[in-house]
Amino acid sequence: MTDVLDSSALEAAARRLVEAARRAGADQADAVAVRGVSLSVGVRLGAVEDSERSEGDDFGLRVFVGRRHATVTANAFSDPARLAERAVAMAKVAPEDPWADLIEESRLAREIVDLDLVDPSTPTAAELTERALACEDAARAVAGVTNSGGASASWSLGGLALATSHGFSGAWLRTGHSLSVSALAGTGTGMQRDWDASSKIFGADLDAAELIGRRAGERAVARLAPRKVDSGRATVIWEPRAATGLVGHFVSAINGAAVARKTSFLKDRLGEQVFAAGVTIVDDPSRRRGLSSRPFDGEGVAGAPLNLVENGVLATWILDGASARELGLSSNGRATRGVGSPSPGSTNVTLQAGTKSREELIRSIDRGLLVTDMIGSGVNGITGDYSRGASGFWIENGEIGHPVSEITVAGNLSDMYARLVAANDLEYRFSIATPSLMIEGLTIAGR
């Protein structure tokens, strides 16, 4: 697998595409080469159900002729001159775009920092099968588990090489390992399902297969015999894995492209108090072994930690070059990219931990809901209106009681963020990391 883990050929291909574009008449150009390799195994009830492997490199060339630009893509690097000629011809008839351009040369990364993103050990299909089977066996061994939704183990390698006509050339690769399982408890119409998973850059950092399986089984059993609750207003706590959605809605709302299009409910709130005092949210592409870390972005800008929210105040937008120019600002190195044109996007987002434990927050609630799972995507990004299905456990007089399901939690994100309280149980399990989050006074729709 050493050839797959070597990005030098990708970087050379990107440089050749840029050179071909200049010869074809482009004023400026940048090129990307994207590598994608994956291997996965799925099992169910102790037997392998599927095993898949994919591998390929894709290429993209963006050229500029004056203020006009065009992008062409290919899945084989066979004739860079022809690709460049096609791109230049397309650019000459494209409409002018006042915002598209290469990033300023002064912003380009001067060195490619090693963030420890490549696990040199590549698992075989047999090893992935062993992981998945051990995970499912642990879930099925939990008392009360009656069936399995299956387990999956996978490995992937992805990365990007970028070259530009104003001198940048670099590449990065990132591996990923994941293990997940779904368990079912009960029988007939009373059956309940839950899951657990672990994703890491290095396979050795994954949670133990037996632990993942046991957690999934125990969660499924705990959901048996759910009840409905009366509609009304209540305090809601999201456990960390459910709380990532709340932070994800915020990240989408401060995306520079949405702000420039005026399709975000936060479009006029920069520099204002958006969250409760004490809330800080950070985006950090430079975290070692981070799930979304990278040494430079899709335009060649070096990654650096960025406070999105400081003590509750909205501090910045997520910007690439084009969205920053349209808003009269500067890129903050958040360009994401495949083989097409760059667009703004987050990396490793963390809502920092509060001071109280989740147990302390629960004890402070007379009537409320602990959300363990969310359903649907009922969020209006323009108005901030929020309405999503949920399941979890009812809280009465400071104690967790019976499981509940078929509940809708509703509110407006602007009001919700202003009342948000973070617990101290921060978990780094996903690209968005958050502790449990509590919000008072939400509408609960039940029976």
Structure description:
The protein has 447 residues and is α+β, with helices and mostly antiparallel strands. It has two domains: 8-220, 2-Layer Sandwich (PmbA/TldD fold), CATH 3.30.2290.10; 226-447, no CATH class. It is 22% helix and 36% strand. The chain contains nine helices and 19 strands. It has helices at 8-23, 80-92, 125-140, 209-222, 240-253, 256-261, 321-326, 358-363, 413-418; strands at residues 28-44, 47-65, 68-74, 145-164, 169-185, 192-200, 232-238, 281-283, 306-310, 313-314, 335-336, 343-344, 349-351, 367-375, 385-396, 399-412, 421-422, 432-433, 437-445. α1 (8-23) packs across α2 and α3 (125-140) packs parallel to α4. The termini are far apart. The model has no long low-confidence stretch (mean pLDDT 96).
Uncertain segments of ≥5 residues (pLDDT<50)? none
Could you give a short account of the major beta sheet?
6 strands, antiparallel
Number of strands: 19
User: For the CA atoms, what is the radius of gyration?
Assistant: 24 Å
Task: Give the overall pLDDT as a whole number.
Answer: 96
Structural class: alpha+beta
The outline comes out as globular
Number of domains: 2
